[in-house]
Amino acid sequence: MKLITFHSNHKVCAGYLLENMVVVCQEGEGADQALLNLCKAGPSSVQDWVKKEIRRVPLSSVELLAPIPVPLRDIWCVGKNYFEHAKEFHNSGYDSSSKEAVPQYPIIFTKATTSVIANGAAVNSALDYTNSVDYEGELGVVIGKRAFQVAKEDAMSYVFGYTIINDVTSRELQKRHGQWTIGKGLDTFCPMGPWLVTADEIKDVSQLELVTTVNGEVRQKVSVADLIFDIPTLISTITATTTLLPGDIIATGTPVGVGIGFTPPKYLKPGDEVKVSITSLGELHNPIS
After folding, report:
1. Sheet (strand 217-223) strand order
2. For the whole prediction, is pTM greater than 0.85?
């Protein structure tokens, strides 16, 4: 099921997609937290929630928000998690994470909740005074129940669903500050959406294909199977010492083809359009302003 949060009739609403129609299940106060609350209640709660149908409206008539517009906590992110991108980034001269091109262990950092914007919303490149804005198309994993010291073989049972994330980055700020929080967490630098697809719709997440285009030019194209550290490994690694909460979001890493990998770098500029598509999850598109 494709769950969405959106504006309709000047109200924040939440519901799900039924072909080209939106079924409104909640509106007004609390609707911006509806999908987060579903994560907390667990996958079995979805069927009861969708029975609360209020009305149906065309998808074209609503303004999408991020599926979880205000995440519970910062987005968990993974650096250098595709082999070719790890080499690409390491060779760029902007990698301050380690001396190794391919990491032995997952590189984990976070991205501010205030960076989250919706499908169709503009990335404010003017906030990066270094003019080094880059794109990173990624698969987002949404946690569905409290997770601590989870074994890899059990990890997928903790996944509520999936979404698309563009981990927009200021490369110069990322390099200058060593740690990646400032370079990754700028306001508007985390487009997310267009919806949250429940895990039951994805039979084998490793078979999904991710494609990123800039102004129609394909820059990234990869199978999720090419992750260095797969989703069970990421969940197991994080929860070995830290509790993941329902609604937490993990951005699993970006493949080869980011702007910094070109000579000279192909940074984003006002007027550009970035689209990230993933099989079965839709397409996330955002203009650069």
Report:
1. 217-223, 209-214, 273-278, 282-287
2. yes
